[in-house]
Amino acid sequence: MSKFLNLLFTTCVLSLTSAFAQDQAFFDRDGSVDPATNLPTSGPKDGLEPIEMVNPRADDIYWQKVVYRTIDLREKMNYPLYYPEEASDNRQSLFALIFRLVQEGKIKVYDYTDANEVFNDEHVVPFKDILEKYNIINTPKPDSITGDTTYFVDNSDVPNRDVIKYYVKEVWYFDRISSTFNCRIIGFCPIMVQETDMGLQKFPLFWVPFERLRPFLSQTEVLLTDRNNGARPSFDDIFMKRRFSSYIYKESNVYNRNLLEYNSTYEDIKKEQDLVKIRLINFETDLWEY
Description:
Elements: H1 2-21, E1 61-72, H2 79-82, H3 94-103, H4 127-133, E2 139-142, E3 149-152, E4 163-175, E5 180-196, E6 199-204, E7 208-209, H5 210-217, H6 235-240, E8 247-251, H7 266-287
Antiparallel strand pairs: 1-4, 1-8, 2-3, 4-5, 5-6, 5-7
C-alpha cells in the first residue's frame, strides 16, 4: 500500500512539473528561440526586487572599517561588467546602465572628491555637466511646454568603452545583535581613461550610491560565461555574492591617505594590501576565540 501511495505521489509531482513547464515553450512555431526573451531559460527579471539585506541599528555596530577598492574591467572575471560594448541580447554594460539612468533622471550621482564622499543635493552632478565636461556628443531637445531641455545621446556615443575601472567604497562591520561580520558596498565611481595632450589620463566621473542603484541592477541580466548562455544572473547577484575581482587602494586612516601615498614600490603596496586583508580576516577570527 505504501509503495502505491509513493508511486501516486511521484506521478502527481511529475504531472504538476510538466504542466508548469508548458507555460512557456523554449522554441516558437518557426522552430527558433522566442525572440521576445531570446533565452527564456534565463527567466524574466522585470519587477525583481534586490536581494534583501538586514539594516542593523547604529548602536549595534561596535566595530567598522571602511575600505576602498578598484575593479579593473580588463580582468577576465570582470568582463560581465564591461561587455557588451553596445547593448544587445537583453544585456548592457554596467556603465551604459548607469549612464541611461542618470539621463532619465531615475538616479542621482554626486561629485567625486579625494577627501570625502557626500551624497546630498549640494553635491549632485547634473547630467548636462557630465556631457559638457567629457565632450560627449548629444542632441539638446527643448520642451516647448515646460521649458526643460532633454539631451539625446546615441548608443554609439555613450563612452562605456572608455570606462575601464571603478572605485568601490565598502564598509566592513560587526553586528553584535546577530553576531555577524558583514560587508556592504556604499558606492561606485566609474573611471574613464582617455588620450589627452599629456598622454593617457584617468578621470573619476562621479559617485553612485549603491543602494539607490540596486533596484535597477536586480532587473538587468548578465552573461557570466560562454559555456552556458542560459545562466544569467543579475548585476545585483554579482555584487551581493562578490563575484568580481578587485584590489584595495585605500583604507580609512587618520591621515586619509591611499596606499600609493605612503608606499613607494609595487612590492610595498602589495604587502600593505595583504595586511589590510589579513587584519579583516584576523578580526573576524578573533571574534570566535575562546
